[in-house]
Amino acid sequence: MGVALALDAAGLLDRSEAETVAVRQHLLPAHPPSDVAVVGIDEETFADLDRAWPFPRGLHARVIDGLREAGARTIVYDVQFTEPTRPAQDMALYRALGRTPGTVLATGESDERGRTKVLGGDDNLAAVGARAAASNVDVGVGGRVSRYRTHVGRLATIPIVTVEVATGRRPPASSFGDGSAWIDLRGPARTIPTLSFSDVLLGRFDPSDVEGRIVVVGATAATFQDYHETPAGEMTGVELQANAIWTALHDNPRRDPPAWVAPVAIVVAASAPPLLALAAPLWLTTLAALLLAAAWALVAQWAFARGVVLPVAAPLAGVAAGLLAAIVGGYALAHRDGRKAARRAAELDAAVRSRTRELRDTQLEILQRLGRAAEMRDDETGAHIQRIAALVRDVARHLGLTEDEVELLEHASTLHDVGKVGIPDRILLKPGPLDEDERAEMQHHTTLGGDILSGSDSPVVQMAELIARTHHERWDGTGYPAGLRGEEIPLAGRITAVCDVFDALVSQRRYKEAWPLERALATIAAGSGSQFDPRVVDALLAVVGGPQAAIAYPPPELVQLSPAETRS
Questions:
Q1: SS (H, E, C) 526-545
Q2: DSSP character string of 489-521
Q3: Which pTM was predicted?
Q4: Which end of the chain is more exposed for a tag (fewer CB within 10 A), N or C?
Q5: Whether the predicted pLDDT of 379 surpasses 80
């Protein structure tokens, strides 16, 4: 019970909880709304118009006019009009806004007072009755967008402003916890009724498709790459905004339960197996615990369908902890009865060994998922850390480390770049070169990673901390963060450094092709004695480039890596 409560309080079950929300969302049927619609700038639009993006603003003006004339209730434009273009085009859009008061325009930028530069500033917008709103979305635990905020800085978000314009009110403050609310997704992608931008522009649509609806205009073509992971699957930014608007329009129907529900559920779930074990055999206690877990999952799904997001991961962890306690308690009681005690002891021993293996496997899985989470900050698929682990394993084995040391190093290396979770997106995802200040902040990921992993009693986490701090030190002492030289650098850091650089060279990126194996090996060899430990370089060349190479490179699945992966 205490373990489950502690895990829940520390947020260590948040990722698992996010997974249960995704499962619950997928089990719900789609509910296309009748009061919100999307106009998508899609592939059909580019084919029809034969124009490159960005479109002249006069085309947007015509779409606004067309939607107004068709009876749209409120128009939301999820396209940013911050910088001026040709005056005639800008004025065409501005006049269309004047003919359609209450239009909401998206922006990702505002100052400390919530002011924007959309179409020259808020005064210009006020003159035609338009409003600017923040289009930013928050990526939550597990990489999914599941909530929307009321404000970004001092600027209200698109759902809040849209509902204000359309209804003259806001959703009740009580429906927002910590300034955000669950997005009540209507279903997977394309559930929101969607028209093509070119169909609206050219008048090829039924006005009843938008009459009386809030209409959100934005990019849906794949070339925009405006996609977000949600509990209902991948979704375009404009459809995500439409779902958030529907949620705000209906006063945030999906909500968290009262704060006492989670701890009470954990206590009940963790207490039931030990109490039952006092009067029932172990097999019956186990069956009852499984039925209890299944019953809670069904209750949670029933509540989810009615707008209440009950906790699932923590109560199930409570059931598991209670069952384990029942097993241990049963083992103590079994010693009172001769042969029966011996038989139960054997069962418990097998259960404990199995549980130990499960806990160890769980710990290693958590390490791998944490390393993958750091890589996914910059759109990595996770294959990079898998390749690094394989390289590190074979290089360490070639250097003569024991199998226990090899296994420990293999698993620890997956967290070498975990500190990237603390690097701002403006640096991590910057498509061009970093300036000196940005590079200095990027280099800080080594100490951030070490700090995240510090203080653990686990040998694999301790080694992961060592690797995170030292895998960018150089053999000649010119590396960072501590400027260690030669064998002052731990062997684990020296091995990971060589493997990390080699994999970066032979892997494809958005801005470069993968290097041929021979060129990459030559570059690694050239760094021997300056950047890298010569002995480790020789081991890598033997493992990858020798006649008995243990690893095939380039990898058969070349994952596209982001520019930030080598900003170290």
A1: HCECCCECHHHHHHHHHHHH
A2: S-HHHHHHHHHHHHHHHHS-BTTBPPPPHHHHH
A3: 0.59
A4: N
A5: no
